Amino acid sequence: MGILDIFKRKKTEVTEELSLDWMEVDMHSHLIPGIDDGSKSLEESIELIKRLKGYGLKKLVTTPHIMSEFYKNTPEIIQLGLQDLNLGLEKAGVDIEVRAAAEYYLDEIFLEKVQQGEKLLTIHDNLVLVETGFINKPQMLLEIFFAMEMNGYKPVFAHPERYQYLIQDKKLLSDLFDREIYFQINLLSLTGFYSKPVKLFAEMLVDENRVKFFGTDCHNHRYLDMLESLPATKYFDKIRQLEILNKKL
Predict the structure, then answer these.
(1) Section 124-137 average pLDDT
(2) What b/e sequence results for 188-211 when a residue is b if at least 16 CB atoms lie within 10 Å of its CB, and e otherwise?
(3) 189 CB contacts (<8 Å, ≥6 apart)?
(4) What are the protein's UniProt keywords (predicted)?
(5) Under 8 Å CB-to-CB from 119, ≥6 apart: which residues?
(6) How far is CA 52 from the centre of its chain?
(7) Which three-class secondary structure state does DSSP give residue 249?
(8) What is the pLDDT of residue 163?
(9) Are 45 and 85 in contact (CB under 8 A)?
(10) SS3 helix, strand, coil % of the chain, rounded to 5?
(11) H or E element that contains 238
(12) At what angle do helices 75-92 and 42-54 cross, to 10 degrees?
């Protein structure tokens, strides 16, 4: 076989197609159109959901941002958006269960909601998806987690591998491990989509068996285009063997 033959063979090799049937349920995405930085239209949402279903997913729990400064969503806004989305899916003949929860930004206003007993949108039972800024640690992080637990909620920390302060603060990471905070990893982090340090931190969390959930965090088609490179990563086989909680949602 000559060099040209090798080149032609590499060029025509078929990459393994992405399958997420091992996960069954995606519990982190932004698919309700027009209410945050995710899908911009009903048509885009339908096309994204068609692709997600095509990967073998059986259920989607979409999680719009609730952020006091930027995305002032309420349970009512989210539920109305979900109704319109499901109606659109029904008309388009797309048969997949889609529910809605929220991705809450941890700040003083969120802490007040928890302390005042406001009902939160959960991904399942008492599980609440939460996030922070990417650079600086919130001063009240552990206080908020404690308040959530005292009010019957179990925090699910969205994409912790993306938080620069957590990558650098081993003591805080150890504290979160000790408190048994549930970690949700973005599948895209394992592809290097965000950065190499994020990828390495995500791999470490997988190696240490600290991941309870995986999510696509799908915002648009660019996310899914990159996600289709996941089978080529060295951790794809490994994450499919983990005992995660997605299937129980």
Answers:
(1) 97
(2) bbbbebbeeebbebbbebbeeebb
(3) 159, 161, 162, 198, 199, 201, 202
(4) Hydrolase
(5) 75
(6) 13
(7) coil
(8) 98
(9) yes
(10) 45, 15, 40
(11) helix 236-239
(12) 70
What residue spans define the domains of the chain?
Answer: 21-240
Q: What are the structure tokens assigned to 173, written together? A: 């990471």
* Inter-axis angle of helices 141-150 and 108-115, nearest 10: 20
How far out from the chain centre does Cα 51 lie? Answer: 16
Contact between 25 and 247 under an 8 Å Cβ cutoff? The reply is yes
In the numeric block, which tokens belong to residue 130? 């939460």
Q: Does the structural domain 21-240 have CATH classification 3.10.20.740? A: no
Residues in the chain: 249
Residue 65, pLDDT > 90, answer yes
> What is the Cα–Cα distance from 172 to 162, expressed in whole angstroms?
15
C-alpha distances out from residue 101 to 62, 88, 204, 235, Å: 6, 19, 28, 28
Q: What is the rounded CA–CA span in Å between residue 178 and residue 133?
A: 22
Q: Does residue 188 sit in helix, strand or coil?
A: helix
Tokens matching residue 162: 């993306």
Report the C-alpha dihedral over residues 149, 151, 153, 159, rounded to 10 degrees: -60
Residue listed under structure tokens 């404690």: 146
What's the rounded mean pLDDT across residues 53-76?
96
